[in-house]
Amino acid sequence: TSAGLFLYPAGAIGATLVFASLLVLVAGASPFNVFWLVLKGAAGSQFAIVETLTRATPLIFTGLAVAVAFRAKLWNIGAEAQLYIGAVVTVVLGTGAVALPSFALIPLIMVCAMLAGALLLLGPAVLKTRFGVDEVVTTLLLNFVILLFVSYLLEGPLKDPMGLGWPQSKRVIADAQLPRLIQGKRLHFGFAMALVSAAIVWVIMKKSVLGYEMRAVGHNPEAARFSGISVNLVLVKTALLSGGLAALAGFSEVAGLKGNLTLDLSPGYGYTGIVVAMLAVLNPLGVVASAIFVAGIFVGADSMSRTAGVPSYIAEVMVATALLTMVVAIMLTRYRIRWR
Question: What average pLDDT does the segment 133-158 reach?
Answer without folding.
Answer: 96
